[in-house]
Amino acid sequence: MAAKFAQGLVLLIVIASMFAVGMSNKDWYFGVNYTDWWSHFGHHKPNKTRFESKKIIVGGSENWRFGFNYTDWAIKSGPFYLNDTLVFKYDAPNDTTHPHSVYLFSNFQSFLKCDLKRAKRVATPTQGVGNGFKFVLKTWRPYYFACGERNGSHCSAGLMKFVVMPMLRPFWPWP
Ligand SMILES: *[C@@H]1O[C@H](CO)[C@@H](O)[C@H](O)[C@H]1NC(C)=O
Ligand SMILES: *[C@@H]1O[C@H](CO)[C@@H](O)[C@H](O)[C@H]1NC(C)=O
Ligand SMILES: *[C@@H]1O[C@H](CO)[C@@H](O)[C@H](O)[C@H]1NC(C)=O
Ligand SMILES: *[C@@H]1O[C@H](CO)[C@@H](O)[C@H](O)[C@H]1NC(C)=O
Ligand SMILES: *[C@@H]1O[C@H](CO)[C@@H](O)[C@H](O)[C@H]1NC(C)=O
Ligand SMILES: *[C@@H]1O[C@H](CO)[C@@H](O)[C@H](O)[C@H]1NC(C)=O
Ligand SMILES: [Cu+2]
Fold it and tell me: Residues with Cβ < 8 Å from 137, sequence gap 6 or more?
């Protein structure tokens, strides 16, 4: 009971102090400077580099390889935005290196099971050489990526799979 009362009192003080700030300066309401915020839509030029699409190398310096945790990588590298480009880099297969490729699953179930029968190949084992295979996140939908080599074992045992849900950019680019 006393704790509830104390909580309520703290809340009241916080609200009151917000009003006090609001009264003392017309630009400030509840901690947001709307005068400043609106200037984004006025003559002030916003920093354009914030809106530009990014190129992201899948796996970073690890590139696209067997045994690297891409689910973990995707969580730590996100969020990804619409029109961002994912770059898959992998060596061409030879006698000593394993081939890799890039597949897109049609749904989450097949992604979970690494069911390649329900996947579409978007890059062959030789498309990852040089500057890598580029994939633009064009639409607002989840993308289920995987390596399709060795009958799904690169996808399951090799951890070569991840999901990306591109987001809308938080601010509209102003000319
Ligand atoms: C709010 O932003 C405007 C425009 O940038 C600025 O002139 C004003 O001083 C700001 N107010 C406060 C309280 O920082
Ligand atoms: C724009 O933002 C980027 C990254 O946030 C920063 O490196 C750059 O210096 C900024 N440019 C200007 C003109 O403010
Ligand atoms: C890969 O990373 C994810 C997310 O951090 C984690 O949940 C999962 O257990 C990891 N897988 C392996 C095989 O380490
Ligand atoms: C993505 O790029 C295309 C073509 O450059 C453009 O028409 C579209 O508006 C862009 N979408 C977003 C969300 O930036
Ligand atoms: C296979 O490719 C790797 C990576 O490109 C290279 O280091 C290796 O020398 C190649 N091996 C042969 C036998 O060509
Ligand atoms: C590929 O994997 C599927 C399911 O895991 C299995 O039924 C099939 O026999 C495998 N094919 C080959 C050629 O190993
Ligand atoms: Cu692979």
Answer: 80, 81, 82, 83, 84, 85, 86, 143, 164, 166
